[in-house]
Amino acid sequence: MIQVRVLGAAGGVTGSAYLVETSQTKVLVDLGMFQGKDARTTNGQGERIDVNNSLGAIDPRSLAAVVLTHAHLDHTGRLPMLTRAGYNGPIYATPASGDLTEAVLRDSAGIQEQDTERENRKRERAGLDPLEPIYTKQDAEAVYKLIKDVPYAKEAPVAPGVKIRYYEAGHILGSASISMSVSDAGVTKTIVFSGDVGPRNAPILRDPDPPSSADLVFLESTYGDKDHPDSSASVEKLIRIVRDTIFNKQRVIIPAFAIGRTQLLLYHLMAAQDAGQLGNIPIYLDSPAAKRATEVYMKHTELYDAEAARLVGCRRLVTGLSTVRLVESPNESRALNDSWDPCVIIAGSGMCEGGRIVHHLRHNLWRRGTAVVLVGYMAEGTLGRKLADGAEQVYIFNDPIAVRADIHKLDGFSAHAGRSELLAWPERMMKGRPRLVLTHGEDGPRAALAAGLRDRYGVVAELPMRGDVIPLA
Predict the structure, then answer these.
(1) Looking at residue 217, which CATH number applies to its domain?
(2) Cα distance from N-terminal residue to C-terminal residue, the chain
(3) What is the Cα–Cα distance from 72 to 69, expressed in whole angstroms?
(4) Could you report the per-residue pLDDT of 100-141, keeping only the tens digit for each?
(5) How far apart (Å, rounded) are the C-alpha atoms in residues 194 and 419?
(6) Which residues, including other chains, have CB under 8 Å from residue 368's CB and lie 6 or more apart?
(7) Both 386 and 457 in a single domain?
(8) Based on the domain organization, do 114 and 255 belong to the same domain?
(9) 127 and 168 part of one domain
């Protein structure tokens, strides 16, 4: 028996998790946090519940190993729930992904504790019992001790009958596609998990390099219905927005994922300052996770593309990053909102669903002249999606906030491949006519990518939903 149980990011873009099962072992691929509408469901009594509070069909005691594609929260965010439930097996990742996962989970655990503390103050006043965070910093620390490095292109056994090999995915530093060889009862199958596939020719990162053969391919479909605009146009617009907003003595607020998007933004802002396009404007990085992630980016320069490696070699990138003002403590973060001084604030989380960006939006969305720049994918149901869709009022901490700021959506900074690149990604594998399974995409983009794959390769892609099981042998 060889089968894969799809436990997340099916019919949505968050909560990635796949359980590979044979008669002798179980291996989990990713365990991400659900966000936006993906995080909410109803129980038998019609009550709304957060699906992140449960591991569902995953029994930590039966797992032989966990394998990660990359460090983003929607792929790693529930790992501390495993250790909280007693899991103490290996967690495999590329060296850079291991370092970044530590940064992400430390930040996430802090947010869980802070949000629960805030909610419990309200519950105490209402005479209700206190809640427990879904995990703590201690649970996250237990994850770090289990991470084992696996370099790119080296085959590594991870469980009885299961071997993996990592390939460059080009999404964030250390991101990987997985080729997994699974043997059971005399049968061997190769399962490929694309992870999140990055665009070609993106700054800093090397281009995606997919595997060449497979029996079953799980392909992400985030942007299966459209290609991104040329990135140079988005860079020019970003610089123009920053320059004009600062000239008018207002603020630029940028929600950004701590890993990948933040470093890309800093790269472009530093390059613009170096070219004389921006003056010596204050740029604040208000994200402990982004600070640690940027340090990891500077540590793993061996993974850079040629242009970024050249900038590091001449110290230009290092010098530029050293001018960014790092906001360490919550008090320093709050102090930013006690001031009206013009500046650029980059903070997480990227979808505006938690973290320090929520506080900055609460204090600035109602101010005319403020520029909010959305540079990443916003899942349905998130605060970021509501802003991108033109909401005139939003609720933050249950308070109504008028949206008077100028909202700018720039698609050219996406860390995901566009439709054309997704269609081309499995080409080398298609000679063997593998089964294609599309995940990590909302219904419209996923259906559009399936139609494109049918036209291009003559294959009918499968579109599973959460909980579906895909048998191989």
Answers:
(1) 3.60.15.10
(2) 5
(3) 9
(4) 999 999 989 988 998 899 899 999 999 999 999 999 999 999
(5) 14
(6) 404, 405
(7) no
(8) no
(9) yes
Indicate the SS3 state at residue 50. strand
> Are 202 and 254 contained in the same domain?
no
Q: How many CB atoms lie within 10 A of CB 305?
A: 15
Tokens describing residue 351: 């979808």
Evaluate whether 149 touches 102 at the Cβ level (below 8 Å).
Answer: no
Tens digit of each residue's pLDDT (9 = 90 or more) over 298-314: 899 899 888 777 666 65
Which pTM value belongs to this model?
0.89
d(CA 198, CA 93): 18
- Output helix, strand, coil percentages for the chain, rounded to the nearest 5: 35, 20, 40
Count other Cβ atoms within 10 Å, centred on residue 341.
Answer: 8
142 and 182: one domain?
yes
- The tokens for 418 are 């566009």
| CB atoms inside a 10 Å sphere around CB 161 | 20
Place of tokens 């998790």: 17
Domain that holds residue 326: 231-413
- Look at the chain and count its residues: 473
Query: Are 19 and 143 members of one domain?
Result: yes
Number of domains in the chain: 2
Helices 261-274, 231-247: crossing angle, 10 deg rounding: 70
Residues 98 and 16 reside in one and the same domain = yes
Domain end call among 375, 397, 413: 413
Helical H segments across 67-193, by residue range: 73-76, 79-84, 95-125, 137-144
**What one-character-per-residue DSSP string does 349-409 give?**
-TTSSSSHHHHHHHHHTTSTT-EEEE-S---TTSHHHHHHTT-SEEEETTEEEE--SEEEE
Going by the DSSP 8-state scheme, the letter that residue 61 receives in this structure is G
Closest CA to 173 of 257, 67, 272: 257
Q: How many distinct helices (H) and strands (E) make up the chain?
A: 14, 23
Residues 301 and 437 in one domain: no
- Indicate which CATH number applies to the domain containing 267: 3.40.50.10890
User: Is 192 within 8 Å of 211 (Cβ atoms)?
Assistant: yes
